[in-house]
């Protein structure tokens, strides 16, 4: 149940259309639904503006399916992250209306109602090796009704590629900057745009990259003031941070 449905339910009770005991029965699903080993948080969209997403990595197929089923019943849509190709094939049989993206490893069933009026969020990645994380961020935003401008392969080793897109970057409502290696891209962007910059380190890089740790530390120590930094490879977390800002603006 989302905020719109809850408001409609209360209005029906107030108008005498719906008996109070029937409304109470419908509200028994709040704030969570138990399904197998899963407790689906069906109230999260009312509290935070975004429904619970299913982190599929490490879950059994039954656990993922139970969670998605509960969320679809509650909201009419659902999102699962870190879904393997094998699991996606099985989920498509259970939820044929779903869509799987091999790059981001997102499995989406429908999308949230409504759309943001803000300018697009720029999702910027340093190299094509960073695309899985970039697409996780971009498609999570699109699932929530936000517009996205993708800017790809503009790492600082060829700074002219980034500068050529500066007008687009400065017109964005928020910039999500994704980079591995030394993780310099968010610092450069932080010095070029006034919009909030959300930095995402990736595990892309050679040995001394330490699976993204060097990029993470570089971003945390950025000399561009005011960067927000999320965890390594956490495109979903970056999108959620952006959505909190968009929710406040809209």
Describe the structure.
- The chain has helices at residues 3-14, 20-27, 44-48, 61-75, 85-94, 131-143, 159-163, 166-170, 185-190, 213-220, 235-249, and strands spanning 33-35, 38-40, 54-55, 78-81, 99-101, 106-109, 121-125, 148-152, 174-179, 197-201, 228-229.
- A 5-stranded parallel sheet has the order 8-7-9-10-11. Strands 3-4-6-5 form a 4-stranded mixed sheet. Strands 1-2 form a two-stranded antiparallel sheet.
- By secondary structure, it is of the alpha/beta class.
- The model has no long low-confidence stretch (mean pLDDT 90).
- Strand 10, helix 10 and strand 11 form a beta-alpha-beta unit.
- Helix 6 runs parallel beside helix 11.
Number of domains: 2
What is the alpha-carbon Rg in Å? 20 Å
The CATH architecture category of the largest domain equals: 3-Layer(aba) Sandwich
CATH topology of the largest domain: Rossmann fold
Walk across the major sheet and give the strand order: 8-7-9-10-11
Helix content: 40-55%
Q: Which key phrases capture this entry?
A:
250 residues; alpha/beta; Rossmann fold
Q: What is the secondary structure topology, with strand pairs?
A:
Elements: H1 3-14, H2 20-27, E1 33-35, E2 38-40, H3 44-48, E3 54-55, H4 61-75, E4 78-81, H5 85-94, E5 99-101, E6 106-109, E7 121-125, H6 131-143, E8 148-152, H7 159-163, H8 166-170, E9 174-179, H9 185-190, E10 197-201, H10 213-220, E11 228-229, H11 235-249
Parallel strand pairs: 3-4, 7-8, 7-9, 9-10, 10-11
Antiparallel strand pairs: 1-2, 4-6, 5-6
Helix pairs in contact: 6-11
């Amino acid at each position: 149940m989302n905020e719109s449905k809850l408001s409609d339910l209360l209005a029906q009770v107030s108008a005498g259309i719906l008996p109070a005991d029937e409304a109470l029965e419908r509200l028994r699903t709040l704030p969570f639904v138990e399904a197998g080993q899963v407790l689906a948080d069906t109230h999260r969209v009312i509290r935070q503006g975004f429904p619970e997403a299913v982190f599929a990595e490490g879950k059994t197929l039954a656990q993922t399916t139970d969670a998605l089923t509960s969320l679809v019943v509650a909201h009419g849509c659902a999102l699962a992250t870190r879904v393997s190709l094998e699991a996606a094939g099985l989920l498509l049989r259970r939820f044929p209306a779903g869509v799987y993206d091999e790059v981001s490893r997102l499995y989406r069933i429908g999308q949230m109602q409504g759309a943001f009026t803000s300018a697009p969020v720029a999702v910027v990645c340093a190299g094509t090796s960073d695309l899985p994380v970039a697409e996780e961020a971009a498609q999570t935003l699109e699932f929530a009704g936000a517009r996205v401008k993708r800017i790809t392969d503009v790492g600082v080793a060829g700074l002219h590629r980034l500068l050529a897109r500066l007008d687009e970057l400065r017109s964005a409502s928020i910039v999500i900057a994704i980079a591995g290696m030394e993780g310099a891209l968010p610092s450069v962007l932080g010095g070029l745009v006034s919009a909030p910059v959300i930095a995402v380190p990736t595990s892309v890089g050679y040995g001394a990259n330490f699976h993204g740790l060097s990029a993470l530390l570089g971003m945390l120590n950025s000399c561009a003031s005011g960067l927000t930094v999320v965890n390594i490879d956490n495109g979903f977390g970056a999108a959620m941070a952006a959505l909190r800002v968009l929710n406040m603006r809209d």
